[in-house]
Amino acid sequence: MHHLVIDIGNTRTKIARFECSVLKEKWTVEALSIPVINHILTNHSMERIIYSTVAGIDEAVKAHLMTHSSFCLELTHTLQFPFKNEYETPQTLGKDRLAGVSGALTMYPNKNCLVIDAGTCITYDFLKEGSIFLGGNIAPGLKMRFQAMHHFTKALPLVNPDAFEAITGIGKSTQSALLQGGARGAVLEMEGMIQWAHHNFYDLNVILTGGDAVFFANHLKSKIFVQPNLVLIGLNKILEYNVRLLE
């Protein structure tokens, strides 16, 4: 089976080609367009396509995708998922969270999983024994923490987290105090959530993804698995599951 998986974010789009459930190629572009689709599909025919978008999709681009596949799905909460969803407001649930949980199920079937997506916000999602999505928590991401301290005070400057080098514990200037406090607070929060999860879920796998995953992976003491392609893997899993239901 040849699948095209598309994750359209606010600032960039990730695209992946899967063959028999294996990720073969990946592209990152600023925006999904007809030329981009034509370039990717020049040497490949796709039997099935799934796309997820938080920023919307141009109708002409959507129509063009459909011309390349007889089976084209948009990820919404109304699709069927390979797990039971116990979230009380599924219509408000972030699509990346659904895809991330599906990715965890793909990597660790029949296992308890905590999926941490460290992006603009940090999301913590719990998958029980590979079959039940229990829900999760949402917290401010790294950059959001620094922006909030600057925005809601008159004296504190806006610091650049990219300038952060290492957590030493004590800031020696206002800038380093902000960097140390914001970064250490986020790391300690994540460590605390992981420890709480291990205490409440037997034989737990912790999967970390998102734009700030590498930063947290370098500072966490807990055992984690970093998977930058988790959402793409999850989207492919959702596509496969819905295809099987129609067979």
Short recap of the structure:
The protein is α/β, with parallel strands linked by helices and 247 residues long.
- The residue-averaged pLDDT reads 92
| CATH overall fold name of the largest domain | Nucleotidyltransferase, domain 5
Largest sheet: 6 strands, mixed
Low-confidence stretches: none
The secondary-structure class comes to: alpha/beta
How many structural domains does the protein architecture include?
Answer: 2
The CATH superfamily of the largest domain bears the name ATPase, nucleotide binding domain
Helix content: 25-40%
Could you name the CATH class of the largest domain?
Alpha Beta
Distance between the termini: 14 Å
Radius of gyration: 19 Å
Explain the overall architecture:
The chain is an alpha/beta fold. The protein has 2 domains: 1-74, Nucleotidyltransferase, domain 5 (2-Layer Sandwich), CATH 3.30.420.40; 77-247, ATPase, nucleotide binding domain (Nucleotidyltransferase, domain 5). Helices cover 36% and strands 27% of the residues. The strands form 2 sheets. Strands 6-9-8-7-10-11 form a 6-stranded mixed beta sheet, with helices on both faces. The chain has a 5-stranded mixed beta sheet with strand order 3-2-1-4-5, covered by helices on one side. The protein starts with a strand and ends with a helix. The model has no long low-confidence stretch (mean pLDDT 92).
Question: What descriptive keywords fit this protein?
Answer:
2 domains, Nucleotidyltransferase, domain 5, 247 residues, single chain, 7 helices, alpha/beta, 5-stranded mixed β-sheet, 27% strand
